Every structure is written in C-alpha cells, then in structure tokens.
Amino acid sequence: MPKNEAGPKESDLYPPLKTYLSAQGYEVKGEVQGCDVVAIRGKEPPVVIELKLVFNLNVILQAVERIAVSDHIYIGVPRECKSLKRDFKRIVKLLRLLGLGLICIDIHPSPVPVEVVLDPSPYRPRISKRRRQRLLGEFQRRIGDPNLGGTATRKGIMTAYRQRAMAIARYLHESGPCKAAEVAKALHEPKARNIMYRNVYDWFERVRPGVYALTEKGRQALPTTTDGP
What is the pLDDT of residues 123-150, one digit of tens each? Predict the structure, then answer.
C-alpha cells in the first residue's frame, strides 16, 4: 500500500511568500532572531511575518512579541485555514486592535498565491453610544446581582425585564387573577399591562378583558426558595 503523504508544513508557506515580497523589492530571510520571516527594503522599518498552519493564540502571542522590533508585523496562514474561516470577522477585528497584519498564502500553485488581507495600523474603535446606553440601562434597572458571571442558568439569564415579569408573576400567584391596573398600582410597575399583554415568557393569560392570571408555566417559573428573583 502507498504511504500517506505528509501534510503541509509551516515552511511550505515560505517560498510563495518570499517570491511575493522579493517582487516588491524586499530582501527576504527566514528565521532571523526567532522571527519566521524578515523582509527589509532600503531604510524602511523591517517587515516581520510569523507563519502558522492554524490560527491560534500561540501565533498571536508570537506576533505581539515582535511589536518591539517593528510596527509592521504580520501573521501568515494558509488561505484554506479553517480556524481563520470559522471566525474571520472577529479575528480581523482582534488583529486591528493589536495593530497586527494578516496575510493568506496558497501553498499550492495559484494565480494569486499571496493576499494581504490586513495591513498593521493603529486601531481606534468607535464607541457606540446606543450600545453603551443599553448596557448601562440594563445594569441600572436590574435588581441585585442574580446571575453568576460566565454562566447562564437553565432558565436563562435574569434580565431586568425578566425580573419585572417575575414580580408580576409572584403577585398573581399570591393574589389570583387581577386587573392590570391593580397589579400596576400594587407593584409600582407602570408597564404591568404591557408586560402581561406581550407575554414574552408565556407566564400570563387574559381570563377576561383587563384581567390576567398566572399560567402553569408561570407557576413553574417561580423560585422554590426566597433566595433572589
């Protein structure tokens, strides 16, 4: 039986990259002071490229270390790199944040063997006022700290809206079917009618005009203890 062909190596990325850079007037050398590829053109700052077959944290850390020697640091990966394709937009955003560049390389002969996807440049992200206000609004409206950071409970994240709906569910559980106006007054919740009408969690049902009751799903959603919402 024929032996399995060996897979590609990082060194396979070097020849097409060197050809590409040399055509632009760079003198290119491999493995210089720990850098995979160094290219120099005249008195310009050196260009450093770190090569990897997969895009991972290791290559990012290597590239970040090289920032001390030049502002022109790139990560070079195969064009068909699955780890890059899987989360391309967020990876490019991360590289922009770090001031790093990205080069995709075809190991096999190709009409365009090297593509510079991103050049290094200072990253100045624009703050989204709308998203910031949503963040601060949710933080301020939420009662206490009902969620364990880094996890989501089986019933979902306890948002401020869910807390308000839960308070209404508790009231209906204790008082039975009530008019929306009564619930709003008792809980000081001006949106009580709207919350029960929208019924996002299927906890409420209208038993007659203006009067709402708790559904079985709503009763099951109520905590079995008094520890938090």
Answer: 666 777 888 888 788 888 888 877 766 6
Report the predicted TM-score, pTM, of the whole model to 2 decimal places. Answer: 0.60
Q: CA 16 to CA 77: how far, in whole Å? A: 12
The architecture CATH gives domain 10-118: 3-Layer(aba) Sandwich (3.40)
Distances (CA, A) of 213 to 83, 115, 132, 216: 51, 62, 36, 10
Are the C-beta atoms of 66 and 50 separated by less than 8 Å? yes
How confident is residue 226, by pLDDT bands cut at 50, 70 and 90? Answer: very low
Q: Mean pLDDT, to the nearest integer, of 197-226?
A: 88
Task: Please tell us whether the domain made up of 158-229 is placed in CATH 3.40.50.300.
Answer: no
Map out the domains of the chain as residue ranges. Answer: 10-118, 158-229
Interatomic CA distance for residues 51 and 165, integer angstroms: 53
